[in-house]
Amino acid sequence: MNSPTYQNIKNILANGSYELRGQFMLGSNYTFLVDVQHEGESIKAVYKPSKGEQPLWDFPENTLALREVAAYELSEALGLHIVPVTVYRDDGPYGPGSLQQYIDYDIEYHYFNFSVEDKQLLRPIVLFDYLANNADRKGSHIFFEDETKRLYAIDHGICFHEEYKLRTVLWDFAGQPIPDELLAPLSSTEGWLSLFERYLSPNEIAALIQRAEELRQTKLFPQPIHGRRSYPYPPV
Fold first, then answer.
1. Dist. CA 30–CA 228, nearest whole Å
2. What string of pLDDT tens digits covers the 236 residues of the chain?
3. Can you tell me the distance from the alpha carbon of 141 to that of 137, in angstroms, rounded to the nearest whole number?
4. Quick one: DSSP state of residue 186?
5. In this structure, what are the phi and psi dihedrals at residue 98, rounded to the nearest 5 degrees?
6. Of 9, 81, 171, 176, which residue is most buried, by most CB within 10 angstroms?
């Protein structure tokens, strides 16, 4: 089969047929590797069915897959393109869930052994994580694609809570000015309600927009808050 172009990836994920290849055994939620085929093209993808999610005390049940898609939409709205293409499907082999483009990368090369130069490329993820209110940014959730060396970030199921939940290993730029090119997309959030209403509650969307407004005002990367846990566990 021909290799799909980037423009075709979302169409394949949204409309293709699944073939299960295996299960990822690490992690608390059920996650599967699948082949997705559509009109003669095929890609690997990560399928996270909603009914395979372990309940969390502070997040509504069966919403983590929706948050995965919301993270992709936020990345695209900001022009960052750091989250692999992700869609929500109602017809998965184990029920509704998220379907995300699979990226090949070196699992041994992660935040904790990135070069100094590569760590300097992480500012977009820091901005994204604050806006998404990422409660679990581990070092292994950030990587560079093998072939293109493009930066990616994954695992966004516990994001977008209306209460402040940011837990991350990425405090490298805390208190530093946010580059103008990263702030520019925050000047217009009028369309965010319609963009996220399928995936998030009204209160969660309002909190997201409020965080964007805070960054527009401060123009600084966030700092850890004294008296609360600001790092995920485990960190990798």
1. 29
2. 445 666 799 999 999 999 999 998 777 788 999 999 999 999 999 999 999 898 889 999 999 999 999 999 999 999 999 999 999 999 999 999 999 999 999 999 999 999 999 999 999 999 999 999 999 999 999 999 999 999 999 999 999 999 999 999 999 999 999 999 999 999 989 899 999 999 999 999 999 999 999 999 999 999 999 888 999 999 99
3. 7
4. G
5. -90, 150
6. 9
